[in-house]
Amino acid sequence: MSGTNNTGGATPPHYKIAVGSLNPVKIDAALEGFRSVFPSATFSATGVLANPGVDSQPLSDGVAFLGAWNRARHVFDLCPDANYWVGIQGGVQWDTYSLNTGEGKGDGGQLQAFSWIVVLGGDRGELMGKARTATHYLPSDMSHLMHFGYDLGLAHHQAHRGIDYNPTDGSVGLLTHGIYGRDESYLHAIILALIPHRNPTVAF
Ligand SMILES: O=P(O)(O)OP(=O)(O)OP(=O)(O)OC[C@H]1O[C@@H](n2cnc3c(O)ncnc32)[C@H](O)[C@@H]1O
């Protein structure tokens, strides 16, 4: 993939990333993550509508991971000419360590919010990296609403009427007053999910 440019220097290799989402925050985070992990290459990223194969609001760690994996596999099928395939899936899970209820599950417990990221590479998508974003806890009024079927965005809207989150900051950005946004949380996890790709001779 490398050649020479008209100044005589080597042209850096270019790689295509296919992201299983039309959400610009996810696509931009994936692109930025690849660029920071592989600074001597160039990248372009395309978002594609991929099927997570799970509920739109996953309620467990495992289902959220499955959503990320399904998105990555689906975008692999849809974009065979890409070099990397990325699935990002948000989810929530009842805290098993909650001291509030002693049960840590169901209404009255605390909800953790996070996303899973799966990055596939290799000719057949056989090289997989995965990572979970940082976790934050949702306020109890939101957890209550989500217990009754609201998704995260709707629960925010309902619980904090008048203070809508912006898509880039997301839930975590609203709750940290803009110190740590959804974009940054995706970026950090993309970098971690690229560890096997950055170290292809190491077994994970
Ligand atoms: O278009 P896709 O890729 O599906 O992106 P999404 O924004 O819907 O995000 P996810 O499917 O990954 O997240 C699952 C649910 O959680 C919601 N969600 C995820 N992150 C959020 C955040 O930071 N703030 C508010 N809602 C969020 C989202 O709207 C979904 O209903």
TrEMBL record:
Q: Give yes or no: UniProt keyword Repressor.
A: no
Pfam families listed in its UniProt record: NTPase_I-T
The UniProt entry, under Gene3D superfamilies, shows: 3.90.950.10
TM annotation in the entry: none
State the InterPro entries in the record.
Answer: ITPase-like_fam, NTPase/PRRC1, YjjX_NTPase
* Cofactor(s) demanded: Mn(2+); Mg(2+)
Q: What class of enzyme is it?
A: hydrolase
Q: Which SUPFAM superfamilies match?
A: ITPase-like
Which reactions fall under this protein's catalytic activity?
A: XTP + H2O = XDP + phosphate + H(+); ITP + H2O = IDP + phosphate + H(+)
Q: Where is the Non-canonical purine NTP phosphatase/PRRC1 domain?
A: 20-197
EC numbers on record: 3.6.1.73
What is a single molecular function from GO for this protein? ITPase activity
Q: Which UniProt keywords apply?
A: Hydrolase, Magnesium, Manganese, Metal-binding, Nucleotide metabolism, Nucleotide-binding
- The lineage's top-level taxon is Eukaryota
Q: Which GO terms describe its biological process?
A: nucleotide metabolic process; thiamine metabolic process
Protein name, per record:
inosine/xanthosine triphosphatase
What organism does the UniProt record list as the source?
Answer: Lasiosphaeria miniovina
